User: Fold these one by one.
Assistant:
Number 1:
Amino acid sequence: MKILIATQKPFAAKAVEGMKEIIAEAGCEVVMLERYENQQDLIAAVADVEGLIVRSDKVTAEVIAAAPKLKVVVRAGAGYDNVDLDAATARNIVVMNTPGQNANAVAELTIAMIVFMARNGFKPGTGMEVRGKRLGIVAYGAIGRIVADVADGFGMYVHVYSRPYPNKIRLYAKHLRRDDTLEKLFSESNFVSLHMPATPDTKGMIGYDLIKLMPKGGVLVNTARKELIDEEGLMRALEERADLKYITDIAPSNIEQLQQKFGDRVFATPKKMGAETAEANMNAGLAAARQAVGYLCHGENEFQVNK
Ligand code: 3PG
């Protein structure tokens, strides 16, 4: 059986090595498609594969239609909004993610972004400390929890809003408080950090009405998905409130306009880098390889998201 590893943004070489070993040991063949620029290359590469491992690569209905033998798609990472679940489900193709495997990497970037903004983008001048400040975390999943714990270590007061709340909410952070509305969380948090997936319910949910509630000097941090932000609303809030700032790992569609208008008050990484650590590549890559062969060889589907 053939498993294609298709990554526009490749895994670290060591992770690829490990993935190849896992797949070969299971008696499957590995096919590589890295750094491809054209979606047609992905469409051509899936023609005869049973398994597909991707990162943020777009597994569209067209890709699925071009893959008559495909049985499993593993998104090496958390968010699977890049996979057309309906098209996969209609063909009984199992789709999985690798939850938690890159959570620490994203959480560390989030904390780095908070400190970066508190210190004026590392430019000369007087910044502020994060100790004693309030951090609002939207969505208390694998990433949100690590951010809460680390922020607690910095002496921040952590607020959490999550829907639904995990069954057993882990309250390690000493100063953690649960907010029942997003309005409350935004209006009291000096920093707000987003950690929810992009779904029809969450797309565009953070807009003018929430952002404008932030206290003076508020910073919105987004290491999740650009689709969560109502970009017009963000623009309006930044226009009306010269004290607010936005930092993100996924550049908004209007990034040039935002940077022209607001300069250093808006910062976006040049390329999404939350999960770009050697450790996260190993964790997510190896887990994806194990899950792909686990399903193809033994029918294991623990992490299936389209059950
Ligand atoms: C995820 O959903 O796991 C992250 O956004 C990482 O995405 P990436 O694999 O494209 O870096």
Number 2:
Amino acid sequence: MAEEKLSFQAEVSKLLDIVVHSLYSNKEIFLRELISNASDACDKLRYAGLTQPEILSGNGEFRIVITPDKVARTLSVSDNGIGMNRADLVENLGTIARSGTSNFLSQLTGDARKDVSLIGQFGVGFYSAFMVAERVEVISRKAGEEQGWRWESDGQGEFTVAEEPSAERGTRIVLHMREGDTEFLEGYRLRHIVKTYSDHIGLPVFLVEDGKEDAVNSASALWTRPKSEISKEQYTEFYHHVAHAFDEPWLTLHYKAEGAIEYTGLLYIPGQKPLDIFHPDRKQHVKLYVKRVYITDDCAELLPPYLRFVRGVVDSQDLPLNISREMLQHNPVLAKIRAGLVKRVLGELKKKAEDAEGGYGGFWDTFGAVLKEGLYEDFERRDEILDLCRFRTTGSDEPISLASYLERMKEGQDAIYFITGDEIGALKKSPQLEGFIAKGVEVLLLTDPIDEFWPNAIGKYREKAFQSAAQGAADLSSVKAPEGGEDKRPEPLEGDELAALLAAFKLALGEQVKDVRGSERLTESPVCLVADEGDVGMHLERLLRQHQQVEKRAPRILEVNPRHSLIRRLAAEAKREGAADRLADAAWLLFDQARIVEGEVLPDPASFARRLSLMLERGV
Ligand code: ADP
Ligand code: MG
């Protein structure tokens, strides 16, 4: 087959353009990326060889070889791993399949400096070769196949693929270095880079100098070494490799479980939110090894979805080496490992949460919404997870624990109040909260989608029920007013005056509301909407509507503030003859206004505008 010319996927071109033109200060990381890929490729072939030994064709001594050539100005990095065929080359080196890519690219600003720091977080893997090379050749032959291939590109929008009869099993990457980047052909420099970034790789990396091969790294998998012999930098480098991440890990947890089940865990919690954390496939990202042999990075049984932010490796002594991915489902050994991992991770989070210097607040901001999923996914550990949760409240901009909430409860208060919405600022202004704020009763402000589900599923925390402040009746009468603050509000309307007004409103609004009633919830606002006990909450209904999950709107209860001067005047109006039309207009205006405050879209904005103009006209 003759040479074929193909175009990079648009996203790759965009990325390459930034990589090539940015003045990336840390160019040397290209070598880490190529070694990391080579090591992954060897891991994959080692695993395939467990069930199909013939695929190794007698060459199972995995290795990576780095060869600089100052005369030709090339640097080659080769491995004898799984290799790539034509389709693999086109797919893997011509597109970006990673989830979160388009999200990432949409954040790029065109400002070189900002974009480089973004790339630092995202990582460009193989494409980082173009930071130092003006041309890159990839010569590869896939294990078990006869035909080899050559991929070649200058990173300018196109690449070529052609047959390459001389290719050996595995992959050789040849970098034709840019004139300014010849430092990467110096032996001492390469040695230093490998030591710094790739010492933890579990297979030997050789450097060829003056025709001699010399092993440069320690070549023992990092997690098998004793903790005392591993530096913080080495832990971080391994995190970068195993998590394909570029930030500093927030938490590093390295331990050996001994006893009935033996395994080693080297786990990390990232410092920054990975781009795909809310991607619907919710993959977990801890790699499974058995006796140091890589098995899979896609083992859903290893950790529950609510811990999917954890990265790292687990190496088991007890699973059989030739275990297939299918056999991992419902495996009792794996179930025990999973229970152990969950216990360790939650235990470590607890320690961090109790340590004022531990930076738990930052962790919570980044991953709290994910961890909270455990509140209804993991029934057994619900209380443990609740203790780890933090909440912003009407009384605290700093997230607090439920234990502190309980300590701050008012005398006579017997529920944990919460309200759900899209955004803290808007939530704080909710009319439903006015009465709570006046009485000094703290309300949890919940803004994650998951918050719509767990409070009802859980019911109680240490004997106190969770109760929505925007749903059902709010009985705050048993709560004492704050010290020295006797009720300074105006007297409420008389019972029958109020009843007449409520009746007039009900008549006007008909089926649109479930009820109209007087409220103790309000201080400033004349009206607000609440959901009836047992109905879908208002915020949840809006979320469901946005996702086309429901179409109907459940009728709400309109609550009226019997102490508000507008309500008093409307009540006086209600006594007069022939006021029905004006009262109906007022009822609709107040109802629509309450819906706007809720963030609802008015079903009939034209009528709202007409009534408002009419009222204004009467006023002036
Ligand atoms: P990542 O390693 O995060 O997947 P890269 O850009 O580093 O992203 O690599 C893209 C893909 O190209 C890899 O996932 C792998 O499938 C393939 N690849 C890269 N280098 C090699 C190699 N040396 N041997 C086999 N496949 C490779
Ligand atoms: Mg890579």
